[in-house]
Specification:
With 232 residues, the protein is an alpha/beta fold. It is 41% helix and 13% strand. β1, α4 and β2 form a beta-alpha-beta unit. The longest helix has 14 residues. The relative contact order is 0.17. InterPro entries: SAM-dependent_MTases_sf.
């Protein structure tokens, strides 16, 4: 039986993995430094929660839809390295990530497929233990993955979907609106640390981070629009 994915659980994960997270944050900070600063898409809290959920789940197979320059990819690979197990399968229409992800993280634990994942569905492992989605943020793409990708995944796996709550509510006719409607239809609860949608959770996590000496930002942004849920 999985523990509820809520603020208390996320706080416990921060406390459990604080030392490892501190080290990974410093490694990620180096990737943002000149002269070859990586373009970072995720904000700190949402990247950290993804890392913490990966550490807890210890997945053998992780699927990442959308890599861009590899910021999320490096967070995921760091978690697999720290777990000592697991392989990441990433998919994107562009291959910037191949020039950005350090070889020390990629070697032996990463497979990248270039192309539209909708045309490569047969290459996506249906044995995935963890799913990370940060690709096209259109309603059309979301309708595709709730109909074709999510039903192939095993119940109970953690799922992360980026760019849902940039405001108090997801905008209509967007990926966020589609996936939230899909979750509501199934009574599938989600967690978010979005400053706009859940300011009290955002503030509590920042307070926890300060107490754990993790308060200094890696990336100077505080939107955190990602949602997290366990697939029902």
């Amino acid at each position: 039986m999985h523990q509820p994915l809520d603020i208390d659980h996320v706080v416990r994960l921060y406390r459990t993995y604080a030392d490892d997270l501190d080290r990974v944050r410093e490694e990620q900070r180096v990737l943002l430094a000149p002269p070859h600063a990586m373009k970072a898409q995720l904000d700190d809290i949402e990247a950290e929660i993804a890392y913490l959920l990966l550490r807890e789940a210890r997945p053998e197979t992780v699927v990442e839809i959308g890599t861009f320059h590899g910021w999320s990819t490096t967070w995921i690979l760091s978690a697999l390295r720290d777990n000592g197990t697991g392989h990441l399968y990433s998919y994107d229409v562009v291959d910037h990530v191949l020039r950005e992800v350090p070889g020390r993280l990629a070697e032996g634990r990463w497979t990248f497929t270039q192309g539209d994942v909708r045309e490569n569905l047969e290459k996506v492992p249906d044995t995935a233990d963890f799913l990370f989605i940060d690709a096209a943020h259109s309603a059309r793409f979301a309708r595709w993955y709730v109909r074709h990708l999510l039903p192939r995944m095993r119940p109970g796996i953690p799922v992360c979907v980026h760019d849902v709550f940039h405001g108090r509510r997801a905008l209509p006719f967007t990926e966020g609106a589609v996936v939230l409607h899909w979750l509501a239809e199934r009574g599938n609860r989600y967690f978010t640390a979005s400053r706009a949608h859940a300011p009290e959770i955002h503030d509590r996590l920042n307070d926890v981070k300060r107490r754990l000496a993790l308060g200094h930002p890696v990336k100077n942004s505080t939107d955190n629009p990602m949602i997290f849920f366990r697939l029902s």
